């Protein structure tokens, strides 16, 4: 990729409050397919937008459970990459840092990020739809997994299409976006709201917005800097140029 803009390196070094919003592109280099990528193997003929819904779970819980078991396996095999590691290092390098992710794979935490807002939940956790309590992996061994308290079939603890995001997480993310000096949008197509509105909240507050993505996105025309490249290559260079 091209040289990093010196203005961006300087802005990162001077920033007091930095927010990074990540999407599935940052985990692509870890082998977790992006949500909109073609599905493979047994699942090639299914549309994720029709499996990741409360209606699909009500209609055919076993089908949805099996699809999530397959996706969970991909996530369990994945390891964080240099992009995740660079964001964990950035957290340690700037005075205030918020990492907001749409990913459900837990790879930021594995890379050492301490403070992660998971806007779309976590695929390794389950949730009882009746009691609305979360169940950690290993707590429910039955197949299909059942709530240890009430015996209802558990669902993955992720936000499905048509569902509301966790209010506290969204509020924290929005507050951080509205008060930051620099906002990094990494590996997200910017198509799914409300997460996609966060960089615009930052812009309204006068923050510098930079995007890291090999492709153009709807945010590109508004971003001060568009770094066209992969997160695993661009982020380590950026962080080391600013703080190395
Ligand atoms: N580095 C950075 N970006 C990348 C890389 C990479 N190595 N590889 C792909 N990308 C970019 C793509 O160009 C695309 O813009 O990552 C983006 C992935 O887009 P989506 O698949 O739409 O993923 P995301 O933006 O995370 O989707 C948001 O939608 O389906 C829901 O809940 C799901 O959290 C997901 C949300």
User: Roughly how much helix do the residues carry, as a percent range?
Assistant: 25-40%
Second-tier CATH architecture of the largest domain: 3-Layer(aba) Sandwich
**How many runs of DSSP E, i.e. beta strands?**
9
What is the CA–CA distance across the termini? 19 Å
CATH topology of the largest domain: Rossmann fold
**Silhouette:** elongated
SSE sequence, one letter per element: HEHHHHHEHEEEEHEHEEH
| Model regions low in confidence, pLDDT < 50 over at least 5 residues | none
Unique ligands: adenosine-5-diphosphoribose
Tell me what you see in this structure.
The chain has 244 residues and is of the alpha/beta class. It has two domains: 6-31 and 80-120 and 164-243, Rossmann fold (3-Layer(aba) Sandwich), CATH 3.40.50.1220; 33-77 and 121-158, SIR2/SIRT2 'Small Domain' (2-Layer Sandwich), CATH 3.30.1600. The two termini are 19 Å apart. Helix 1 crosses helix 10. It has helices spanning 6-14, 25-28, 48-51, 54-59, 61-77, 82-93, 107-111, 167-178, 198-204, 231-243, and strands spanning 17-22, 96-101, 116-118, 121-127, 134-135, 155-158, 182-186, 208-212, 225-227. The mean pLDDT is 92. It is elongated. Helix content is 36%, strand content 17%. The strands form two sheets. Strands 3-2-1-7-8-9 form a six-stranded parallel beta sheet, sandwiched between helices. A three-stranded antiparallel beta sheet has the order 5-4-6, with helices on one face. It binds adenosine-5-diphosphoribose.
């Amino acid at each position: 990729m091209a040289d990093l803009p010196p203005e961006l390196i300087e802005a990162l070094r001077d920033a007091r409050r930095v927010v990074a919003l990540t999407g599935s592109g940052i985990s692509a280099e870890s082998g977790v397919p992006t949500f909109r990528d073609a599905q493979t193997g047994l699942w090639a003929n299914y549309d994720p937008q029709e499996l990741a819904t409360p209606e699909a779970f009500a209609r055919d819980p076993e089908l949805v459970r099996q699809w999530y078991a397959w996706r969970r396996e991909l996530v369990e095999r994945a390891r964080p990459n240099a992009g995740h590691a660079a964001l964990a290092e950035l957290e340690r390098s700037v005075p205030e840092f918020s990492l907001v992710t749409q990913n459900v794979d837990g790879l930021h935490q594995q890379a050492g990020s301490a403070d992660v807002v998971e806007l779309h939940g976590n695929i390794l956790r389950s949730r009882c739809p009746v009691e609305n309590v979360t169940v950690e992996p290993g707590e429910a061994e039955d197949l299909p997994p059942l709530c240890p308290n009430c015996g209802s079939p558990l669902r993955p603890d992720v936000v499905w299409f048509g569902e509301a995001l966790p209010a506290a997480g969204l509020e924290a993310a929005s507050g951080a976006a509205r008060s930051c000096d620099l906002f990094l949008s990494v590996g997200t197509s910017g198509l799914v709201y409300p997460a996609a509105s966060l960089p615009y909240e930052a812009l309204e507050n006068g923050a510098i917005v930079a995007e890291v993505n090999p492709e153009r996105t709807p945010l590109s025309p508004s971003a001060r800097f568009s770094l066209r490249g992969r997160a695993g290559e661009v982020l380590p260079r950026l962080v080391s140029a600013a703080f190395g």
